[in-house]
Amino acid sequence: MTGAGWSGTFRLLANYRTGMKDFLNITKALADENRLRMLMALQGGEECVCRITELMGLAMSTVSKHLSILYQAGLVNARKEGRWMYYSLPGKGASIAAREALAWVRRSLDGNERIVEDEKRMKKVMAMDLSELCKRP
């Protein structure tokens, strides 16, 4: 993204009267490739942390930490069902700043080589038995 695109997006986020802490949480959350990949993976809908972990190829504790940062920034919703956490992108109830940040991520990474690879990999992950997948250490 060009410098003008970045500054325009940050200016746009600041215009929503986002508090400094909220603004920093969003920018911190977006400053990591793995978290951006997770956001893009959630474009297809809600996912169990087990599937996100399988997609990312990281330890579940690492994935959970990344998702916690995204949650604190208001960039994902989380719900617990039994032992497992499920994550999704926020809807209209999200702050305007979070919705604008997510729209910017989608526009910027649409067609990105890594994201396209993740989309292909996620199709394979979705074909796996969730109960077996969630038993993995």
Topology at a glance:
Layout: H1 3-15, H2 20-29, H3 33-41, E1 47-48, H4 49-56, H5 60-72, E2 77-81, E3 84-88, H6 96-109, H7 113-127, H8 130-133
Helix pairs in contact: 1-6, 2-5, 4-7
* Helix fraction bin: 55-70%
Major β-sheet profile: 3 strands, antiparallel
Number of separate strands = 3
CATH architecture: Orthogonal Bundle
Briefly note the CATH topology name.
Arc Repressor Mutant, subunit A
Rg of Cα set: 15 Å
How many structural domains can be distinguished in the coordinates? 1
Which strand-content bin applies to the residues?
A: 5-15%
Our count of helices gives: 8
Distance between the termini: 38 Å
> Within the largest sheet, what's the order of strands?
1-3-2
CATH evolutionary superfamily: Winged helix-like DNA-binding domain superfamily/Winged helix DNA-binding domain
Q: Low-confidence spans: pLDDT under 50, at least 5 residues?
A: none
CATH class: Mainly Alpha
